[in-house]
Amino acid sequence: MGHSQYLNLPLIQIADITGVYGISFLVVMINAAIADLIERFLVRKKLKLEMYSTITFGKKRIFLFFTITTTCLLLFTALLYGYFGLANCKSLQSGPSVCLVQGNIPQSVKIDHDEKQQEEILMKYINLSQKAIGKETDLIIWPETMAPGFLNVNPKILDREIDWLSKESVHNLANKTHANLLVGGTAIDIDINKKKTSYYNTAFYYNRNGKFVDRYDKIHLVPFGEFIPFEGYFPFLSHLVPYNVSLSNGDRKTIFELNSKNGHKKFRFGVIICYEDSVAPLLRDFRKERVDFMVNITNDAWFCDSSELDQHLAIMVFRAVENRICIVRAANTGISSFVAPDGKIYDYLERDGRYREIDGILCNEIRFMETPNTWYTNHGDMFAFSCIIVTSTLILASITRRILA
Questions:
Q1: Where would you tag: which of 107, 182, 191, 314 has the fewest CB atoms within 10 A of its CB?
Q2: Burial class of residue 43 in the structure, from the number of CB atoms within 10 Å of its CB (0-12 exposed, 13-18 middle, 19+ buried)
Q3: Phi, psi values for residue 131, rounded to 5°
């Protein structure tokens, strides 16, 4: 519910203490207060019912205090904190130059195993990326699984033309653009001794010379989208997923390093893939490792031109505010964007008013702030847990009172 307020910057700044649950709490409380006021002063007055509000227990003074005073006080406090927080974020520092590539490949084409179409996908991303030549770009980012070939194995092993072409194209692209590359793809690990093959949803990182540096394997996989829960017990569930194999999850939070052309600072960043930006503890762990910014690569082509693309971006806005960190997002069909530590979407890819299902590149600088970790980064969802404890205590007290009565 709190995600609905992602454009209300003053209100959402308190998320660096309470997380998005604090915003949800305010939304519910304000709407409950309005509903109670309508019930008391309109409905009951009209129907002349002599009954009391469930909140006030029939006492007007208590009703006014809890329904109006407390709600207004909390809202005022949140907004006051928000305006002060936004003022502190006006002096953001400029970081490395990043170029996001958005190819707008339909999912029906993406999952097709036709080699010609795979080559067309690869060449489209190569051609779009080459538009960054001459822009002094530090990092070029491709969305999730956009490299059609396996980049982590010797092409001789599987002897697939697309693997040769993918590795060669990525290497040449780095040399032409003189930029580091972060490429979304699929990794394959083959254990000959155990006769086991594992597949991963992976982000591959290359330096400016096209040399492979490191990779991040997605840790939190989507059930029935990337793996089949309890597949060994319920094999028929395999018919519900779009792929022939289940992916394996990674177990390492990789920290990448990036040297900017325009400065001597070495930046540290982490990667989250697809809906991992909805896993708040994962972002907190990266922030505790003192990363300067985060990258989200995603392929939302599954949802076509729907509101899911906006909802996914809204989730990422809160991760930025909660941890006071800049997050950049490369999405295959949109919405590729730059989000500042205060939650402001300061740039996104659009053309003629459209920002979904378009192709192009988006280049801008990272904006970051050197501050200590936020309360939320260090302590997590303490506010939400406190609400659960208080609610459980009140319910238990009510049940106990009824039993004793």
A1: 191
A2: exposed
A3: -70, -15
> Whole-model pTM?
0.87
Side chain identity at 87, as an amino acid letter?
A
3-state helix vs strand vs coil in the chain, percent to 5: 45, 20, 35
Q: Which amino acid is at 217?
A: D
Instruction: Find the length of the chain.
Output: 405
Q: How far is CA 113 from CA 18, 197, 269, in A?
A: 45, 19, 33
73-78 CB contacts, 8 Å cutoff, 24+ apart: 74/26, 74/29, 75/26, 75/30, 78/11, 78/13, 78/14, 78/22, 78/26
- What domains can you pick out in the chain, each with its CATH number? 2-90 (no CATH), 93-373 (3.60.110.10)
Q: Report the catalytic residues.
A: 144, 218, 274
Coil/strand/helix, residue 109: helix
Over the chain (405 residues), what is each successive 10-residue block's mean pLDDT? 92 94 93 80 59 48 70 91 87 89 88 82 94 89 92 84 90 92 92 80 94 94 81 72 78 91 81 93 94 94 86 94 95 94 94 90 90 92 93 90 81
383 φ/ψ angles, rounded to the nearest 5 degrees: -65, -45
* Phi, psi at 339, each rounded to 5°: -120, 125
Q: Which two tokens stand for residue 354?
A: 């459209």
Say how many CA atoms lie within 13 Å of 11 toward its Cβ: 18
Q: How far apart are CA 180 and CA 118, in angstroms?
A: 23
User: Which residues have C-beta within 8 Å of that of residue 104, sequence separation ≥ 6?
Assistant: 332, 333, 334, 357, 358, 359
Tokens 């896993």 belong to residue: 279
* Residues forming beta bridges with residue 271, ordered by sequence position: 295
